[in-house]
């Protein structure tokens, strides 16, 4: 009977013995894990073993950050601002949705509210649920 797991290469064994992946329990371990990730990424030309190992380390970082550094839930205009920044977009890039740059700027500056039509269009554009753009009062 086989386990279905492939035998790890000597390089992969070297990776996990040099820096054994373990659950991250504090900030020092988080920084050490992030430094290890960066050192592998900096070498370039990643092998499949590098990619597999990075996936394991990345999962450990993600798990720690989810528990200890939860992301704030953004909604409405705050979310729109974050999405613009994250996507390297300018307000003028949304003219096709809001009809003019001044409309977009008014929305971003709190002088105007998103319309239902704009909410639907923004949700489709950013591929997220329209409910995230609805402001709760």
Secondary structure elements and pairings:
Blueprint: H1 10-18, H2 27-43, H3 48-68, H4 76-86, H5 95-98, H6 101-108, H7 116-126
Helix pairs in contact: 2-3
What does this protein look like?
This is Transcriptional regulator. One of its GO terms (molecular function) is DNA binding. The protein has 137 residues and is mainly α. 59% of the residues lie in helices and 0% in strands. The chain contains seven helices and no strands. The model has no long low-confidence stretch (mean pLDDT 92). It folds into two domains: 59 residues; 58 residues, 434 Repressor (Amino-terminal Domain).
Unreliable stretches: none
Secondary-structure content class:
mainly alpha
Spatial gap, N to C terminus? 61 Å
Major sheet characteristics:
none
**What Rg is obtained from the alpha carbons, in whole angstroms?**
22 Å
Q: Which word captures the global form?
A: elongated
This entry's quaternary arrangement is single chain
Count the beta strands. Answer: 0
Organism: Hassallia byssoidea VB512170
Protein name: Transcriptional regulator
GO molecular function: DNA binding
Domain HTH cro/C1-type: 97-133
What key attributes describe this structure?
single chain; 137 residues; mainly alpha; 434 Repressor (Amino-terminal Domain); 2 domains; 7 helices; elongated; Lambda_DNA-bd_dom_sf; DNA binding; Cro/C1-type_HTH
């Amino acid at each position: 009977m086989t386990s279905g797991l492939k035998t790890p290469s000597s390089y992969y064994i070297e990776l996990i013995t040099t820096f054994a992946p373990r659950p991250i329990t504090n900030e020092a371990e988080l920084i050490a894990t992030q430094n290890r990730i960066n050192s592998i990424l900096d070498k370039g030309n990643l092998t499949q073993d590098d990619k597999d190992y990075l996936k394991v380390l990345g999962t450990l970082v993600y798990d720690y950050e989810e528990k200890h550094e939860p992301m704030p839930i953004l909604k409405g205009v705050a979310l729109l601002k974050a999405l613009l920044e994250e996507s390297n977009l300018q307000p003028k890039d949304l003219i096709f949705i809001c009809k003019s740059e001044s409309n977009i700027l008014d929305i971003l500056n709190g002088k105007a509210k998103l319309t239902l039509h704009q909410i639907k269009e923004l949700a489709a554009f950013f591929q997220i649920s329209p409910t995230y753009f609805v402001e709760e009062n």
